[in-house]
Amino acid sequence: MEKSHAKDSPPESAQRHNRGHMHLPSYLAPFRPRIFSALAGYTRERFFKDAGSGVTVGIVALPLAMAFAIASGLKPEAGIWTAIIAGALISALGGSAVQIGGPAGAFIVIVYGILERYGLANLLISTACAGVLLFLLGFFKLGTLVRYVPVSIVVGFTNGIAVLIVLSQIRDLLGLVVPKMPADFFSQIKVIGQHLDSFNPFALGLGLACLLGLFVWPRLFDTQNRSAGGFTTRLIRMMQAVEGVQLKRATRMASRMPGPIVALVTLTAFAYLLSLPVETIGTRFGGIPRALPVFALPDFSWETVRLLVAPTITIALLGAVESLLCARVADQISGLPRHDPNQELMAQGVANFVAPFFGGMPATGTIARTVTNVRSGATSPVSGIVHAVTLIAIVLAAAPLAVHVPLAVLAGILLYVAWNMGEWREFARLRHASSHYRLIMLGTFLLTVIFDLTVALQVGLILACVLFVKRMSSLFQVVEVSRDADSAGFQLYGSLFFGAVAKLDPILNVVESAPKGLVVRLDVQSLQSLDTSGLDVLEQLHKAIVLRGGRLVLAGLNAQPRAVMERSGFLEKVESL
User: Fold this and answer.
1) Are 354 and 86 in contact (CB under 8 A)?
2) What is the pLDDT of residues 230-252, one digit of tens each?
């Protein structure tokens, strides 16, 4: 008995492997963060690469996090806490090796609108509920469904969000004295026009200098770029010939400094030393707390959750699309193993559920910081965790200095983000695109700008579905191949589904106009698929033929149509060849 038991038992190694692992049904995704596989064989060399890239991304994330929060109508620390807490959780629990999570420009318009309509407490609740929804999407293996969102919709609402970000920054760029900006497009234009008399030229100068510097800085040291690097390269070489190795080393260090940090530090110092009369973080918000956030529960009730269904779905859908698009970009440029979309959504869900309890805002994968992470040499999620630790260190050490940051400089940074976010070349390519693509993209773009992203996504998806049905129905064809006094033959091509059933009307017309006893032969060898609506119209056709004393013959049935007909019992009523 003992020998038989030992023989039938699984190997000891398999027992050790399976011990402590829960066997989930096949429709549920296992919770397997990428960090565990990424740390297999982890070396000191890889750690130094991850640490260096994490510090770089942490420095880049600081001005962006503050700018995104302020533009969303929140205090700057809301963006910083989100970058720290959500960024660490997404890296530690996510399905991508190098993706960086945190507040994103795509959420600015959504968060501002929810804040204006529902208030801060309800924004936090809807963000936490969106986190639960994101986790469930990943847990039930629905991450791949996000890829079914048409590119035309993604481009349309991305460009629309970029335009709205630009509009939202006009107040701070021009230094206008506006107590509170409305959320909708036309009201913002009206308010800006009414307050143009408070225009501040110093703010505009700082904002434009920041924007110009962000465009010039990366090209200043790009020796491969002829348009920007020619004169600069010659100048650097001349100076190196005079100063020697030290200047060369300083130039290399300067080229690695992130443009947003250079702009933030230099222009803040410039404005402070010259005492320029511009609005700063200190004058509007009173500064940034020099302490870690405190856990706090917002007022929660089931009635409140029911009212927040629309904003919750919007945050979850936008977060899912943005994070998985960012993960795909990271896969393409990093050369590391492909991300797990379901695990990524579960990590995004945990991050968005936790961050609001510390005053955070919605978070997702961020393309700009992820690309910076990859190009800085990141090899594992450790770099994302280091990025969060770097932000904590900066906040604890340099929070008092943030009070001097001009809001016009942050506006310039956001204008640069909006420019890079938009797929502006797609407008020029529209003349070469199909009418369906043009309609969906322009419709989504205009609805995003004029109404809001929720309406744009809903209408865009409905348009995409309607146009898809129209296109698929056009591919279905009915061809008459023979007809005489006693029989008629037709050939069916494509998919017979609810959008194409009307194309069987000519066959019914032939049956009703022909003498009784007509034999109708349908060659369905080229019929690829059949749905219940298509089956129903075939049953109606069969009844009409039988009532007139005829017969329906099907020839060349494929597997899928045959299975549908067998399950319904229709195949037993007709003749098949």
Assistant:
1) yes
2) 555 555 555 555 555 555 565 56
